[in-house]
Design goal:
The chain is α/β, with parallel strands linked by helices and 323 residues long. The protein contains 12 helices and 13 strands. A 6-stranded parallel beta sheet has the order 2-1-3-4-8-12, sandwiched between helices. It has a 3-stranded antiparallel beta sheet with strand order 6-5-7, with no helix packed on it. Strands 9-11 form a two-stranded parallel sheet. Helix 2 crosses helix 4. It binds NADP nicotinamide-adenine-dinucleotide phosphate (NAP). The site of NADP nicotinamide-adenine-dinucleotide phosphate has 24 residues, from helix 1, helix 4 and strand 4.
Length: 323
């Protein structure tokens, strides 16, 4: 029996689908508020029911986006730091493996191969860098699981959400005995305010950048497979291989969904932050070698996006499914 937190959330509901497809018994694990005696309570339940795995897909990500975490700091800390630490501590105490849904947003930028060395570039919109990835993306690659997150409270600027997610990872790694699954900008064919494709289709203007992305169903299946194998505990980047820019993805959308309108873009970082976003956003590439080596390679990002777009089911934008 698997215990799942956040089963009705965007990521949690994908875990439900994957568990049910695989006929793996699961049960919601309701921990609502963290109190002084939460650890004792969680320990009691775990000792009594002895789940084989505890998946934490709960979290506070802000609505409509992470800007809300700047004004709801208590909720952000409770759901994204206290809750995962209490859960993992209880699991580790009695030897039950845990899986925590983390995020790639604790990184910013990419690695750029220059000769025999790798340089970290954090401003992917800097004119020369952008020209480079637009013309030839091959020297760019992602941060791997050994790299230290660089969009955290230790760095110059980060969002409160990213800072807290990074702090949670740091503490969970110390606790050990489980998996940290880094998902990034999830999408699939089902229209939803948290689906990256829905966001592109509904935002009045887009922010051009390059990012790794995670097909929602494929990524939760990879998380489950890691636990089922079982793969060694630790951090895993759970993203599709490769990357595409916002402009490339929106061009694909125009093409596959036969859109007649064109996408508008913010002119610059300054334009975006002055008019749309309150807190800094992470844009980053994540390396998938660790997952690939375990034979859990996710599809190339272009293929996964194409399939999601082709079968896109729209509730919000009035786009008919494309056969
Ligand atoms: N969506 C993304 O773009 C994205 C990307 C990367 C990583 N992630 C991570 O994925 C996880 C889930 O995000 P999501 O997008 O699925 O969010 P979501 O749709 O808002 O769902 C969040 C879930 O967490 C539960 N929850 C919230 N606060 C809680 C608390 N204090 N105690 C217990 N449960 C609580 C919610 O329960 P109720 O509905 O009952 O409140 C809901 O089931 C988060 O850790 C997030 O950081 C998300």
């Amino acid at each position: 029996m698997i215990f799942l937190l956040g089963h009705n959330g965007y990521i949690g509901s994908a875990f439900v689908n994957a568990l049910e497809e695989e006929c793996i018994p699961w049960r919601p694990f309701p921990v609502k508020r963290i109190r002084a005696d939460s650890l004792t309570e969680v320990l009691k339940t775990l000792r009594q029911d002895k789940p084989s795995l505890v998946i934490n897909a709960a979290g506070f990500t802000g609505r409509p986006n992470v800007d809300e975490c700047e004004t709801k700091k208590n909720e952000t800390l409770e759901a994204n730091l206290l809750l995962p630490v209490v859960l993992a501590s209880a699991c580790a105490e009695i030897g039950i493996p845990w899986g925590h849904v983390s995020s790639g947003c604790i990184f910013n930028g990419a690695k750029l191969r220059v000769g025999a060395t790798n340089e970290v570039v954090t401003d992917l919109l800097e004119q020369k860098i952008k020209q480079l990835w637009t013309l030839n993306p091959s020297p760019f690659h992602g941060f791997n699981e050994e790299d230290t997150p660089n969009f955290t409270f230790d760095d110059e600027k980060c969002s409160f959400y990213s800072g807290v997610k990074a702090l949670a990872e740091k503490n969970l790694q110390k606790i050990g005995g489980g998996y940290i699954w880094r998902i990034r900008m999830p999408f699939d064919n089902i229209d939803h305010p948290r689906n990256y494709l829905t966001k592109l289709l509904t935002y009045p203007k887009l922010y051009d950048n390059i990012n790794s992305l995670s097909h929602r169903g494929e990524s939760v299946r990879a998380c489950l497979q890691l636990a089922i194998k079982p793969a060694p505990y630790g951090v895993y980047n759970i993203v599709n291989s490769g990357f595409l820019s916002t402009r490339q993805i929106s061009a694909m959308l125009t093409d596959v969904l036969n859109l007649t309108r064109s996408f508008q873009f913010w002119e610059s970082d300054q334009d975006f932050y002055q008019n749309a976003a309150r807190t800094p956003r992470s844009n980053c590439l994540l390396d998938t070698t660790k997952l690939d080596k375990l034979d859990l390679k996710m599809r190339p990002i272009g293929d996964a996006l194409f399939e999601a777009m082709k079968n896109f089911r729209s509730l919000l934008v009035g786009t008919a499914p494309v056969a």
